[in-house]
């Protein structure tokens, strides 16, 4: 009799367990993502990649100097279909004496799927008011939109830097007036985003390739825009080159750097800059990071025939302290 009761009890427990498992399996999907930040050490510098979000990029409409057949093959090889979801990335460098942010994302200007950079900066352990300097690769909205919110500076203590060539173009009222009607918004938005920093005397453009703080220097690469700028970060014998919009479509432009974007203001110059920078990065094997590479957007290039292969950073759960020891 005891055995029967024990068996019945076991059956009830098993049924309850299975019912519980069924209830767990039926839990609603959360449909959320982890905070978008990724951290690595570059010599003595701490580098944090910050994701601003993603948006669909229609490569059929945006890319030039590539046939539809070749684009289909490139996308298929990368297990992608058009449109491709593109990341918007910024990069935070802590040198030990300065906290420097390179690009600020789109802010509230670019739709609901982006504008998350500050949220992710805070999730990574920093606050906007701690940022000492901001370096802008160029003044397109998805790189400067995050500078302001409700017309006010998001980074109230930061000095804002960009190349003089870029400032002379996008902040010019005369160039805005002379621009085609469909191009005027680009000027207006750049002037709106930078306006509070200019008014506060916190915008300080630079000329050419210069060291901005110890370990970070500008590399002006006109083509995508008149003053498009890369930033080379160097510490302890290691280098990281922040690309900005040197390239947009990894699946197509790494195999063939001559593939360009319709938004490149000087397509020939942008293509030549891309070829030169790709070759140098592959030869010297330093780190590279792209604003629109899949997050975290940090990796290396190696040659592959006449093109290149991008090798993304290897993920680790070790703390930075453990990596250094």
Summarize the structure.
The chain is α+β, with helices and mostly antiparallel strands.
Characterization of this structure:
- With 325 residues, the protein is of the alpha+beta class.
- It has a single domain, classed as Ribonuclease Z/Hydroxyacylglutathione hydrolase-like (Metallo-beta-lactamase, Chain A, 4-Layer Sandwich).
- The protein is built from 11 helices and 17 strands.
- The longest helix is centred in the first third of the chain and has 24 residues, at 2-25.
- The protein is globular, with a radius of gyration of 24 Å.
- The termini are far apart.
CATH architecture: 4-Layer Sandwich
Number of domains: 1
Distance between the termini: 64 Å
The total strand number stands at 17
Topology-level CATH name: Metallo-beta-lactamase, Chain A
CATH superfamily, by name, is: Ribonuclease Z/Hydroxyacylglutathione hydrolase-like
Spatial shape:
globular
Poorly predicted sequence stretches spanning 5 or more consecutive residues: none
Helix fraction, binned, reads 25-40%
Query: Largest beta sheet: what is the strand line-up?
Result: 10-11-12-13-15-16-17
Mean pLDDT: 92
């Amino acid at each position: 009799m005891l055995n029967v009761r024990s068996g019945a009890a076991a059956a009830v427990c098993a049924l309850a367990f299975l019912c519980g498992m069924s209830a767990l399996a039926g839990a609603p999907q959360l449909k959320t993502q982890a905070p978008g930040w990724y951290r690595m050490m570059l010599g003595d510098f701490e580098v944090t990649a910050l994701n601003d979000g993603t948006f669909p990029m229609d490569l059929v409409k945006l890319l030039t100097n590539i046939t539809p057949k070749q684009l289909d093959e490139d996308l298929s090889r990368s297990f992608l279909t058009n449109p491709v979801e593109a990341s918007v990335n910024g990069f935070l460098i802590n040198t030990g004496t300065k906290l420097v942010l390179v690009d600020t994302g789109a802010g509230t200007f670019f739709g609901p799927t982006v504008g998350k950079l500050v949220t992710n900066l805070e999730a990574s352990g920093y606050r906007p008011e701690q940022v000492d300097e901001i370096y802008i690769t160029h003044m397109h909205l998805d790189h400067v939109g995050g500078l302001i919110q409700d017309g006010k500076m998001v980074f109230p203590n930061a000095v804002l830097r960009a190349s003089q060539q870029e400032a002379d173009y996008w902040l010019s009222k005369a160039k805005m007036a002379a621009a085609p009607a469909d191009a005027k918004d680009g000027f207006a938005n750049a002037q709106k985003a930078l306006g509070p920093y200019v008014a506060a005397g916190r915008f300080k453009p630079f000329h050419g390739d210069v060291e901005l703080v110890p370990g970070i220097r500008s590399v002006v690469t006109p083509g995508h825009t008149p003053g498009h700028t890369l930033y080379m970060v160097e510490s302890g014998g290691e280098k990281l080159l922040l690309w900005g919009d040197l390239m947009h479509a990894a699946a197509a432009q790494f195999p063939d750097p001559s593939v360009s974007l319709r938004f490149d203001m000087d397509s020939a110059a942008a293509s030549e800059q891309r070829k030169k920078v790709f070759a140098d990065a592959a030869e010297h094997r330093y780190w590279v990071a792209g604003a629109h590479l899949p997050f975290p957007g940090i990796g290396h290039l190696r040659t592959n025939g006449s093109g290149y292969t991008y090798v993304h950073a290897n993920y680790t759960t070790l703390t930075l302290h453990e990596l250094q020891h």
